[in-house]
Amino acid sequence: MQERTDMELLRQYVHRNSEEAFAALVSRHVNLVYSAALRKTGNAHAAEETTQAVFIILAKKAGGLRAPVILSGWLHQTARLTAANFLRTEIRRARREQEACMSTPDPEPAPEVWPQILPLLDDALGRLGEKDRNALALRFFEQKSFSEIGAACGASENAARKRVDYALEKLRRHFSKHGVSSTTHLIAGALSAHSVQAAPAALAPSVTAAALAKGATAGGSTLTLVKSTLKLMAWTKAKTAVLTGAIVLLATVSTITVIRHSHPSPPRQTGRLKLPTGNVTPMVGYGLSQSVVILAGDGSLWSWGDQSLAWPVLGVVNTNIPNSTVLRRIGHDSDWVSISVSGSDCLAIKAEGSLWAWGQNLRYQLGDGTKITRATPVRSVPGNDWIQAAVGGDCSLAIKKDGTLWAWGDNWSGALGIGGTQNAVQNATQVGNSTNWTKIWAGSIQTVGLQTDGSLWFWGSLTGDSTNDILVPQRVSPDTNWVEACFGYFTIFALKSDGTLWSWGLKANFYTGAPDAGGNDTPRQVGTENDWQSCASSGGFYLLLRKKDGSLWALDASAHRIVKPAASYPPVKLVPINLHKDVATFTAGRDNIGVVLTPDGEVWTWGDVLGENSVKVIDQPWQVTNEE
After folding, report:
1. Do residues 415 and 443 lie in contact, with contact meaning Cβ atoms separated by under 8 Å?
2. Under a CB-based contact definition with an 8 Å cutoff, are residues 328 and 627 in contact?
3. Residues of the chain with CATH 2.130.10.30
4. pTM assigned to the model
5. Secondary structure class of 319 (helix, strand, coil)
């Protein structure tokens, strides 16, 4: 008996409500979806939840899918969007992509290609046109012959072969721009060997049951994921339709010329050149979903970033605004005094000591007792005695005026410091019995705290796995002259009052110059300088530092993003930032982003251009404007 096609099974499900047909579709494609989700998240639990959400979405949208849709291509794109929507945090994505690279065995016949393209693959496929993406999905995800690909796409066997070759060349060029030198032949071999792996045996039945119930039996976080992904899919479709219409219109009146600039120009700015100033100590926070939140000197809040990735961290009500590099004000209040930003949520404190939050809320991290996503600030944990808060990943911590430390949200790595590794802590819980906490920093799965005597404490996962989680605060060293800290990629940086910089953690030897990672569990000095004043990093390989003379410097270890022999990496060097401005506050993001706020309210940035939903990089600082 001839195997039924995907479209035949879909029609049977839609018109006859055939559960057997839908189960067959899940069985046929669950490995594809699970593999794409696992590549994107690097976490089996997240990949399973993403897979369930994808097939719930398929069940909801099945009636609108008709030929010439290639289901494997549609499922891959949906899995990519859903996984990105699930994470929304570059630190978690960067960490898991790197872990995947480290743990992937050398493939044959391309021993070094797969680990390098793995963290880039799904985004690269997402940038291809639908026909190119479908051709690769059929060829490498479903292992179809060229004649079968041609039949599915309504083309000849030779045309299908050319389409696959053309799409592979596009992938090769994309990888090349990201530092991966290879050939289409090696890329094809790596895709054939590794792009699809078996999903857990129990996943297909559970996914089928949840999808057939249209999500009625799924958990709250999965339903939130389904709704937000459907919204993102609708937004992406609308944007594509508008763009296509504009191209058709232009084609009727003129010839379109595409010019590639080797030195991109800064985006056109139309707003005000300065944020308001005042008596509040300003702050800048970078969220790894490509967003920036700024506390201005008058106590107002502002944000900018990529709308499709950064919502709801941006804190704005209107979710249909176009991508923009212009800062927008968050609400109308001017009594904010402190902020903390992560890839998925934000915490902020007002002058009277109340704590507020907005963003995703999958692990109770907003502190409002729910798992409801909040697009704008809402009251967090009760009380008017909060003095500082920190959010990292999905975990939240805050210090009260009495010096006690409290934590809530995600605790799978022990980053809350309350003992154990609970997945979600709904209520704020005191961390130990100390009343001496004065400052707190939260990474994705790591936390550092400073006490009034200058001692520094650490808890969470030191290396990113569960083999050495520190579940309660542990003193870093006997020293009592620590003053500041920040997080790189599974690496902690800390400053002492004598102006020296120290580092420990998974990749600390990249910066300390140690011959290997053997001593990375204890702080070692970075360089010999003793005039550092402050530091900033947001979980990537890019660290910004300010000296006591006000100058800014960068420690760039982004070459280590690509896994290769240790001897082939360039040494990590200090590089001065060419910004001749006084600096009030600053932050760093990803592997090249810097953001600076000057005392007179100017905002300057460089690196990846946030807010354009593009891959544009501008190395020199340029000014960001603002509008109400």
Report:
1. yes
2. yes
3. 283-627
4. 0.64
5. coil
